């Protein structure tokens, strides 16, 4: 019972997550989740630390999305970003930036 | 007025105290004191026989040396055989960046934490690079050794070299290079090494211009992997307990064991580099290959260096005991400065004369200086000059290690190159060498030269 419930719950949760991802709609413009994150101070610093290739890919995707949005179009279905392909590339850098900021604040308090 | 009987009773009491009770009390006190003194004398005996200087060599190859100087401040250094001679041709300038990167993020502490942590205990962290070694020094009060050791170990064994932090160092590299280019001495000496050697020792201590901003994280990591191994490190402490250093060395400084990639043997080939700048003061140095630092000839070269002169010993004095000054003042009346240049490395060395002169008198000055060395090679050396030189050499060495920074470096270099430390007496006894033979070696050896300034009268090597 205890082993069955999480698995069943896990599959249900995964299905929900996939449905939610597609419902968001940014994948129809060819974007990934980390392309759409709001650029506050920490995120700006994390983007600054991205390796060159990742940064260039990000810029290309954003440009393409802006172009499509201007033309009021979306990509053909086979080019939509799939849930499995969506890489959270900014996560490690963002985590590091936030950890450093928290460390600085801890020291300031002392 | 007390009745007579009371005073007599009092007197009896006092008498009895002095003659009977007091000695007993005294004996008790004395016994007590003696017991304390005996234990104190045992402790004193322990302190007196405790040897303050210890060297241990661990199985991983790491050499640990410590000197207990009972100072309230401790100074700890990690020496690594990773100087600029171990740079490969593809990654010239890595040591310069490494020198500046000592405060960057490591696996155990972020750059911010290293800076604030060291400041919080009132310590300091510094890096010195020579052509052969890198020396990381920390100093702090004795009570805070563990905090600061943690940072030192992090910096020497686990740096991360994050790309964005490295690119922030590029302006600092440019500032370093700008300061170096302002100094004609640095210019001439770097050119000298580039001209005199084919490899290894020809690498400059500064990052070449075409590599500024182009050194990658991978190159830094490769250099550290290949060179920062425990077989090439020495951990030295002044005012630190040897047991603590040993524990740190065994636990933390053995991440990369072995001897890393062996550097190439420095090959002397002798060339000249002239840098025409139009400056009215010409800096020139003429050298020949001398001996390695550990050989017997090295001391003879040091004695010769002091015979020829290493600058005035009295501030604003005339330096009239320097043989070079005497010889050159016969050749020209214009102001000049000359001293002997002597530098020894682990497998080679350079010895010669360094002159600073007016642009139109340089030819005479250099020829007179080299002629003076030739004169000594033929044996025209007074005994008084020789003994003066030997005394000056001894005094200079002993006075230099009065300073704890220099002492740390001296102990560390000896520990790194030989694995032991020779006592002061042993070193000063070695200073008894005859410089005539080595002067002959200079005169007959293939020379190298570097010059900078308005080189209109500066001779080429074949004209000297």
Automatic annotation (TrEMBL), chain B:
Top-level taxon: Eukaryota
Pfam families, alphabetized: Peptidase_M16, Peptidase_M16_C
Gene Ontology cellular component terms for the protein in this record: mitochondrion
GO MF annotations in UniProt: metal ion binding
InterPro entries per the UniProt record, alphabetical: Metalloenz_LuxS/M16, MPP/UQCRC_Complex, Pept_M16_N, Peptidase_M16_C
Residues in Peptidase M16 N-terminal domain copies: 64-209
Transmembrane segments: 12-34
Residue ranges of domain Peptidase M16 C-terminal in the record: 214-393
Keywords: Membrane, Transmembrane, Transmembrane helix
Name the UniProt record assigns to this protein: Ubiquinol-cytochrome c reductase core protein 2b
Organism this protein belongs to: Pygocentrus nattereri (Red-bellied piranha)
Record lineage: Eukaryota, Metazoa, Chordata, Craniata, Vertebrata
């Amino acid at each position: 019972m205890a082993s069955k419930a999480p698995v069943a719950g896990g599959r249900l949760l995964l299905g929900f997550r996939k449905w939610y991802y597609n419902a968001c709609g940014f994948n129809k413009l060819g974007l990934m989740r980390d392309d759409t994150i709001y650029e506050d101070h920490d995120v700006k610093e994390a983007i600054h630390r991205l390796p060159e290739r990742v940064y260039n890919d990000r810029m290309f995707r954003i440009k393409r999305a802006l172009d499509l949005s201007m033309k009021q179009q979306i990509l053909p279905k086979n080019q939509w970003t799939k849930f499995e392909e969506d890489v959270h590339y900014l996560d490690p850098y963002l985590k590091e930036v936030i950890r450093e900021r928290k460390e600085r604040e801890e020291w300031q308090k002392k | 007025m007390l009745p007579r009987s009371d005073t007599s009773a009092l007197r009896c009491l006092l008498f009895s105290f002095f003659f009977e009770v007091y000695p007993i009390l005294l004996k008790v006190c004395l016994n007590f004191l003696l017991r304390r003194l005996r234990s104190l004398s045992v402790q004193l005996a322990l302190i007196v026989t405790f040897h303050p200087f210890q060297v241990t060599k661990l199985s991983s190859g790491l050499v640990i040396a410590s000197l207990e100087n009972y100072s309230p401040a401790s100074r700890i250094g990690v020496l690594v055989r990773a100087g600029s001679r171990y740079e490969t041709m593809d990654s010239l300038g890595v040591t310069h960046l490494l020198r500046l990167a000592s405060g960057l993020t490591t696996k155990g502490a972020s750059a911010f934490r290293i800076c604030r942590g060291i400041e919080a205990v009132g310590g300091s962290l510094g890096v010195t690079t020579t052509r052969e070694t890198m020396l990381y020094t920390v100093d702090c009060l004795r009570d805070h050794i563990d905090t600061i050791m943690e940072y030192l170990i992090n910096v020497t064994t686990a740096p991360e070299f994050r790309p964005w932090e490295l690119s922030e160092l590029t302006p600092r590299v440019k500032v370093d290079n700008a300061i170096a280019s302002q100094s004609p001495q640095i210019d001439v000496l770097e050119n000298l090494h580039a001209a005199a050697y084919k490899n290894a020792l020809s690498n400059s201590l500064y990052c070449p211009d075409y590599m500024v901003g182009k050194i990658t994280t991978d190159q830094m990591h490769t250099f550290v992997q290949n060179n920062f191994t425990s077989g090439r490190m020495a951990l030295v402490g002044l005012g630190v307990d040897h047991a603590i250093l040993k524990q740190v060395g065994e636990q933390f400084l053995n991440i990369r064991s072995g001897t890393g990639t062996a550097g190439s043997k420095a090959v002397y080939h002798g060339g000249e580099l002239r840098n025409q700048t139009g400056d009215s003061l010409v800096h020139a140095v003429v050298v020949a290959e001398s001996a390695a630092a550990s050989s017997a000839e090295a001391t003879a070269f040091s004695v010769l260096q002091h015979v020829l002169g290493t600058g005035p010993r009295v501030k604003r004095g005339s330096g009239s005991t320097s043989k070079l000054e005497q010889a050159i003042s016969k050749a020209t009346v214009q102001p000049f400065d000359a001293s002997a240049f002597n530098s020894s490395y682990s497998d080679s060395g350079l010895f010669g004369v360094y002159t600073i002169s007016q642009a139109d008198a340089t030819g005479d000055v250099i020829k007179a200086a080299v002629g003076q060395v030739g004169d000594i090679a033929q044996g025209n050396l007074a005994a008084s000059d020789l003994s003066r030189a030997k005394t000056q050499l001894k005094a200079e060495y002993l006075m230099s290690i009065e300073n704890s920074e220099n002492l740390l470096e001296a102990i560390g270099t000896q520990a790194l190159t030989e694995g032991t430390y020779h006592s002061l007496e042993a070193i000063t006894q070695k200073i008894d060498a005859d410089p005539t033979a080595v002067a002959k070696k200079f005169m007959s050896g293939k020379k190298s030269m570097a010059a900078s300034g308005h080189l209109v009268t500066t001779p080429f090597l074949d004209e000297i």
